[in-house]
Amino acid sequence: MLVIKRIHVVYSLKTDEKNWETAVRVHEFHADFCPVARSIGGCIAITTELRLAA
Description:
- The protein is an alpha+beta fold.
- 30% of the residues lie in helices and 33% in strands.
- The protein has helices spanning 20-29, 35-40, and strands at 6-14, 45-53.
- The radius of gyration is 13 Å and the shape is elongated.
- The mean pLDDT is 95.
């Protein structure tokens, strides 16, 4: 039996450094609007990480 207790998502984004502040800001609240995160967030711990590259 498989039981998923937590999910960790790593976002890798390649963009100009001038956009990094915006990317970080959007990453901070994106889960509030993600249908999947909203559906399972109450029963499965979801964490995210943002990796930026130029």
